[in-house]
Amino acid sequence: MSSTNTEQKLCIDHIAHFVPDGESASAALSHLGFTLTPLSAQSHRLQADGPLVPAGTSNRCVMLRQGYLEFLTPTHDTPNARQLRDAIARYTGVHLIAFGTTAAGEDHARLQREGFDPLPPVALQRQAETEDGEATARFTVVRVAPATMAEGRIQFCQHHTPDVVWQPRWLAHANHAVGLAAVLVCVADPAQTARRYARFTGLPISESQDTWRLDTARGHVLFADVATLQQTLGVTPPALPWIAGYVIDSDDMSATRRIAGGNAVGERLCVALPPALGGMIIFQAAGGTPFTLSQTQ
Q1: Residues facing residue 212 across a β-bridge
Q2: Residue 233 is inside which H or E element, if any?
Q3: Quick one: CA torsion of 292, 176, 19, 73, rounded to 10 degrees?
Q4: Largest CA distance in the chain
Q5: pLDDT tens, position by position, 113-172
Q6: How far is CA 124 from each of CA 42, 161, 168, rounded to the nearest angstrom?
Q7: Strand 11-18 relative to strand 68-74: parallel, antiparallel, unpaired?
Q8: What are the residues facing 127 on neighbouring strands?
Q9: Domains defined for the chain, CATH in brackets
Q10: Cα torsion at 189, 190, 191, 197 (round to 10°)?
């Protein structure tokens, strides 16, 4: 089953963990062999011509050659920070999936047509260190009201300064991670949820062995129920819905096993993340077939 494709190409741009303690999360990521960007405080303009105000959150990122991982910590008492704290109260882990876009305005218009009642686009920015000094990373983010997408903060992100975000010095990792390949979402009704995401993105979905998949130009989202996740990965959700984790490509699985540890699941490696991060990572060899849960059996 599929929906009409959007003219612009969407991809899996990044995911974000919401974590209560940035220092503990950073230590855990370093132990797993990831290189981290410096800590950065976020700010945003709620209207295009409005003032720049603190978002009340700080982040560090794991930049990959394709996509990235973000780790967000609430730092002040702002509406944005309160949303993070409310999400963390459900579980520590991934609460955000960002679809990379080249046309945020078109995504906003599609959400309106499909009845998602999107919020006004947000001009988000943060300061970033570069080898030539400090620079500003700028993004346009399209979101819907909290709870519109029960799985978390599901949004679109258009990068205006990719060279500031993807700096070569942050792309090498001891565990040889190179790309964000998939996101795994555990829900009560995978078919219904996948159809909603198809309307949200305008992208095709397909079904295989009780798991639904939404394909993007780079990467995909898998939707599975509790029983399927327990049978294939042996995990039980801390809450429903649950963005359980994600799949990362490695260009040297031997190094990944040596650094990150984890358990073999077929030809892949499943790493249960510590409480400071929450969720799981499945590592796979870059260039292989797209991940499905049937491959873990």
Answers
A1: 207, 223
A2: helix 226-233
A3: -130
A4: 53
A5: 999 999 999 888 877 888 888 899 899 999 999 889 999 999 999 999 999 999 999 999
A6: 8, 12, 23
A7: parallel
A8: 136
A9: 11-170 (3.10.180.10), 177-296 (3.10.180.10)
A10: 110
Beta strands in 143-252 (DSSP E): 153-159, 177-186, 205-208, 211-215, 220-224, 242-250
Query: Are 117 and 145 in contact, with CB atoms under 8 Å apart?
Result: yes
The answer to whether the CB of 14 falls within 8 A of the CB of 98 is yes
Q: Is 160 helix (H, G, I), strand (E, B) or coil?
A: coil
**Do 206 and 243 form a contact (C-beta atoms < 8 A)?**
no
User: What amino acid is encoded at 220 in this protein?
Assistant: H
Amino acid at 39: L
Which DSSP state fits 90? H
Residues in the chain: 297
Token output for 169: 């010095």
